[in-house]
Design a protein that fits this description.
Layout lengths: L11 H14 L5 H12 L2 H13 L3 H29 L3 H8 L6 H33 L9 H9 L2 H20 L2 H28 L5 H8 L8 H14 L6 H6 L8 H23 L19 H11 L6 H37 L3 H20 L6 H4 L2 E3 L2 E3 L1 H39 L8 H25 L6
Antiparallel strand pairs: 1-2
Bound molecules: phenylalanine.
Length: about 475
């Protein structure tokens, strides 16, 4: 609030409420600051690591279409619900639920969110650690056109000390940012990062789509084959939408709690959702045409968390001005990806931290360090599950495919509990707190909420029915979560 320009035309009540909130727990510096920070939370490994892998494994263009439908019809309404609940209550997910329903059991939804955040953070930090390791590798010119990038990844992922080291460095970075507090820590970083990421991504896309061998991957990614749309694809696309938009576990409730009453939540959500989906689709355009470089047939299930790390180095080694072009672009890419992962991981850490600070009265520094330490410990089995420790690398098989611990964590927490959490959030905001109260909150900063009837129908009927159908289907046939 301190840095906000006073705007003479704004409502006096909004200002009074804002200044109370600002002195107690901090607010974003501006609407743009919030959008960048929320986009920072949304844009991360989900877009660049997870989206292309899901698209490659789930029918390419067919997946992209279902994904876009999920973002527009389900993701955006749920995001608006989370933001309005957060701004209204000015609380973390558990506190927010208690504020609207002090006697009910809905606070458990918040608790599920906090636990999900902790679990996602644990393996997210492992993958983010890989990006740090790859900064070192690209700077050292490890990748030439002759290098077998898949084999390099295998050796790297199988090295227990490198896995634990990079996981530790990344978690340490998160702690530093979150201790800095909402505005100073999170907002400042996001401002520089997002635009730069977009530029580097754009240039890499140009290289990738002009590769001589790009056409098979490109047509797989852009030419929809509708017969490929199956329940498995819908489950994957919906889970991906929630994961990528940081929904279903209260990150957007928490970030919403720092938004000024004068900001327009609808346009904010549209910006964040649009930027997030745009970056994901660009990332697909960078990765899929390059699959053939790594000897991978598009359309054949590749599974595996390591896909982009096995594919992208081949793109970098094909950059002009060899080897410098590759070194420069490769390094820039992995640095930016590490930073994008940082702004996302920070939002995961922030959810759990805000809970301990608001609800349990912990000091911010203590809460941040303890949560990070726990997430680090929880991440160790994931870190060792890509070859370093045999049984962690093959904890279960689903439809003949071996899953390691990290993949399993991502299925359970990155897909299942997020989807379940999103369903409960629809029910809480649409029915328990009530659509009228939620809409009234949204009208702060947006007095003519024209989409209100549409939003109300989507949030109360379409979203819960669609999400519940998916969950029921998952119970009947768990293998669709592959
Ligand atoms: N949305 C983030 C990403 O795409 C991950 C994330 C999920 C962050 C859930 C917060 C909450 O990388």
């Amino acid at each position: 609030m301190e840095e906000r320009q006073e705007n003479g035309s704004t409502e006096a009540t909004g200002q009074v409420q804002d200044s109370a909130a600002a002195t107690q727990r901090g607010l974003w510096g501006s609407k743009a600051g919030f959008i960048l920070a929320a986009a920072g939370s949304a844009i991360g490994l989900g877009n660049i690591w997870r989206f292309p892998t899901e698209a490659a494994n789930n029918g390419g263009a067919a997946f992209v279409l279902v994904y876009i439908a999920c973002v527009v019809l389900i993701g955006l309404p749920v995001m608006l619900a989370e933001l309005s609940l957060g701004r209204h209550t000015r609380k973390n997910p558990v506190g927010a639920m208690l504020a609207i329903s002090p006697k009910g059991l809905w606070w458990l939804v918040g608790t599920l969110g906090v636990l999900t955040g902790l679990a996602i953070l644990s393996y997210y930090s492992v993958v983010a650690g890989w990006t740090l390791g790859y900064v070192v590798k690209t700077v050292g010119n490890t990748f030439t056109p002759e290098t077998d990038a898949g084999a390099v990844f295998g050796v790297f992922a199988g090295s227990w000390w490198q896995q634990l080291l990079y996981h530790a460095i990344f978690m340490g970075l998160c702690v530093l940012v979150v201790i800095g507090g909402v505005k100073a820590g999170i907002e400042r970083w996001s401002k520089i990062l997002m635009p730069t990421l977009l530029i580097v991504l754009g240039l890499l896309v140009i290289r990738s789509v002009t590769l001589p061998s790009a056409s098979a991957g490109l047509s797989f990614y852009l030419n929809p084959d509708f017969s490929k749309i199956s329940m498995k694809v819908v489950v994957a696309a919906m889970g991906q939408a929630f994961f990528s938009m940081s929904l279903g576990m209260g990150a957007m409730i928490t970030y919403g709690s720092y938004i000024s009453k004068r900001d327009n939540l609808v346009t904010s959500a549209a910006w964040v959702g649009g930027a997030d989906a745009g970056i994901a689709i660009l990332a697909g355009l960078m990765v899929l045409p390059a699959l053939s470089l790594a000897g991978i047939q598009p359309g054949v299930d590749q599974g595996g968390a390591g896909l982009i790390f096995a594919v992208l180095p081949s793109v970098f080694s094909q950059m002009p001005w060899e080897p410098y072009g590759g070194i420069i672009f490769g390094t820039a890419f992995f640095v930016l990806l590490a930073l994008a992962a940082l702004t996302s991981a920070v939002s995961l850490l922030e959810v759990v931290t805000a809970y301990l600070v608001d609800e349990r009265g912990w000091a911010r520094k203590k809460a941040t360090s303890v949560v990070a330490a726990v997430a680090y410990g929880l991440g160790i089995p994931s870190a060792l599950s890509l070859g370093a420790v045999g049984w962690l690398s093959a904890v279960t098989t689903l439809q003949g495919k071996t899953l390691g611990f990290l993949d399993l964590m991502d299925k359970i927490f990155g897909k299942l509990t997020l989807t379940f959490g999103a369903l409960l959030i629809c029910l809480v905001v649409g029915w328990v707190w009530g659509i009228n109260k939620a809409a009234k909150e949204i009208e702060n900063g947006n007095p003519r909420f024209l989409l209100r009837p549409l939003w109300s129908i989507l949030l109360r009927f379409l979203c819960p029915v669609a999400i519940a159908t998916i969950l029921v289907y998952l119970i009947i046939d768990p293998s669709v979560i592959r």
